[in-house]
Write a structure and sequence with these properties.
The protein is of the alpha+beta class and 167 residues long. It has one domain. It has six helices and four strands, in the order H-E-H-H-H-H-E-H-E-E. It is elongated.
């Protein structure tokens, strides 16, 4: 295999699936509903279980079981929050494109550099979701460069990966 072919396998431009505004709104709504509904109820159950554990008799088996249940509820809550973050990263809505992509990449263990022109919120959300979706399939030792720029009245998102190992 030639050195150029090996380089091209490591550094390559990608085509992302575009995310339309309707999909952005739907995903953001689902994330909010998940956070405001099931996640809040699980958190309330965890608090209620904690309050109940204070009134329990000194029974080591019962205390251990309550602690086990609290751990289970904490795991369910973490999973619900992770699912919500996959649907629509909360940082995207609150802080914008660059911080959101850095947060997603950090959770995935991927190094990322983001350069973005000033784009409107809808464009930032669509670009952020497309890149975040892509980052979920990137191996941990990959370096990703993202460039969002205005291009002839539209936004162009360029993503380049440099993988740590060939092939």
């Amino acid at each position: 295999m030639s050195p150029i072919t090996r380089w091209w396998r490591r550094v390559r431009p990608l085509r992302l699936r575009p995310v339309d505004p309707t999909t952005c709104a739907l995903r953001r709504g689902l994330e909010r509903e998940l956070n405001d509904g099931p996640a809040q109820r699980v958190a309330a159950l965890a608090v209620e279980l904690g309050l109940l554990s204070v009134d329990l008799p000194d029974d080591p088996a019962l205390t251990g079981r309550v602690a086990e249940l609290q751990g289970g509820l904490a795991a369910v809550l973490a999973e619900l929050r992770e699912i919500g973050g996959v649907l629509f990263p909360p940082v995207l809505a609150s802080d914008g494109l660059e911080p959101a992509l850095h947060a997603v990449a950090e959770r995935r263990g991927v190094a990322i550099a983001v350069h973005s022109d000033l784009v409107d919120q809808a464009t930032a959300h669509a670009a952020g979701l497309a890149v975040a979706d892509h980052l979920r399939s990137v191996p941990r030792d990959t370096q990703v460069a993202v460039r969002v720029r205005r291009h002839r009245g539209t936004a162009r998102v360029d993503v380049t990966e440099e993988r740590g190992q060939c092939g």
